[in-house]
Amino acid sequence: MSQKLVNVIVDDIKVQVPEGTTILAAAKSAGVNIPTLCYLNLADFGCVNKTASCRVCVVEVEGRRNLAPSCATPVNEGMTVKTNTIKALNSRKIVLELLLSDHPKDCLVCQKSGECELQDLAHEFGIKEIAYEGKESTYRKDISKSIIRDMDKCIMCRRCETMCNEVQTVGALSGVNRGFDAVVAPAMEMDLNDSVCTYCGQCVAVCPTGALVERDATWDVLSALADPTKTVIVQTAPAVRVALGEEFGYDPGTSVTGKMVGALRKLGFDRVFDTDFAADLTIMEEASEFLDRLKRHLAGDTSVKLPILTSCCPAWVKFFEHNFNDLLDIPSTAKSPMQMFSAVAKNVFAKELNVDRKDLIVVSVMPCLAKKYEAGREEFSKDGDFDTDIVLSTRELARLIKQANINFNILKDEEFDNPLGESTGAGVIFGRTGGVIEAALRTAADWYTGKSLDNIDYEAVRGFEGVRSADVKVGDLDLKIGIAHGLGEARKLLEEVRAGKSMYHAIEIMACKGGCIGGGGQPYHHGNTSILRKRTDAIRVEDESKAIRKSHENPYIKKLYNEYFKEPMSHQAHELLHTKYFKKHKI
After folding, report:
1. What is the pLDDT of residues 438-457, one digit of tens each?
2. DSSP-assigned letter for residue 563
3. Which of 53, 195, 311, 332 is an active site residue?
4. Could you check whether the bond before residue 307 is cis, i.e. omega within 30 degrees of 0?
5. Overall pTM > 0.85
6. SS3 letters for 381-428?
7. DSSP label at 573?
8. CA–CA separation, 521 vs 549, rounded Å?
9. Identified catalytic residue from 60, 117, 289, 396
10. No. of H helices and E strands in the chain?
11. Tens of pLDDT, residues 472-486
12. Options 117, 247, 374, 489, the catalytic residue
């Protein structure tokens, strides 16, 4: 049944919109822009934040005495709206002036400067001075391994709450206290480090100000590069190359792999490697583990745990450890590509360089803020020396390149160093939702059938729906594959597993919408989720352009197994490439 349409007039422009449409959406359909601050529409995420708390979007509605928040007020038949009256404009200006009066005046040194929506609105409204002076609310800073909470800069838009509670279902943030003491914080105002926060960084991605930012490590990298006693190498994740260009004026979805490599060399790294190599390594172990469980299950072994869950995403792993710690034997024990790379670098490559592992600094450039947390997990260290020393987000790498006065746009394309820089298309697709399981299927199918199969594009596992189900034929096997991106979507599949109702043989889970391309450390999309689709398409193009598209055919992976690991799932492989999970509290 078609939806009933209503007639509305916005700034003398007549439009027809579906009944229940907000004034803000009706104005947009009329080509009228109404400024907003707390409002955020992430339709692809199933998330709309319209708390109407900031009152920046107020308009006049004929017949009403008070101004109406356009983001939360539905239209009705014959409604006449004025967005640009003196009353509305004055109200918006006063609201902004009041917000600024209770906001730190440190824009010049704020990490969000230039990306701050409050700053943008102040500029748009021509606010050049603080109209209201007085007491400012102040809170202690909360500095975790991944995220800094500076609530002095919070405007109580509640976007982070909506993202954390409704989309991700983590429940780490909520509004606490009243009046001047009101703030968004974890339960009992505990630190993020002590909370159920997964460090996915999606709260950071939607915060309009500098209240939530990543913990910056750019100067840690520069200090390491300046130390003549250290050998400093870098690895870059697949999703970084299809988003980094946005920070330098390139259109979303532009792959800048070669320029990125060139920039990293100019920064002074001794070797520039590719996390895609380690993604191929991950598939060797994860596909082997999957086939081992599957074959034993088919042979009647009732002790086998299926479905197997992918384990590449640290935010999803922490979410699992807090919320589903009765199922810790379900996920694959394979480390993430970042941690596999670092383990190989510190324990194998360092010996080839004749460098002590403590003098080899591994820097990882990731799309994900949870990687900063993952790098600091004690199980990924040896005698106090962590496998991954420093993690930079995509945004931090962009800042580092700019600080170094490198003209990114004129750089010539360069290639990664070997041996840890050679990768396949299967490694590249780790960057988007469905990519890890597709890469695993490419290898598992060849190994199970004993043939080198030509049809390796598993279209059934691709897409952008939050939860997807795919039927995949591998030889005589009919496999059921589940895919979820976004922790709220993952929860649905995991509840089925817990209840014993899951029909899947394998499930891929990524914490962020779109997978790593939508990670919390990527360039800000400001609610434009079409950017994520463009990054996904760039990943597809990179995959299709690769000469080798199956992980087990990577010549350097073969060499690594021949010389060190012998075979997947070997004792040596378990020592370096596998991990375990831990039960964490839930508050």
Report:
1. 999 999 999 999 999 999 99
2. I
3. 332
4. yes
5. yes
6. EECCEECCCEEEEHHHHHHHHHHCCCCHHHCCCCCCCCCCCCCCHHHH
7. H
8. 27
9. 289
10. 19, 22
11. 999 999 999 999 999
12. 374
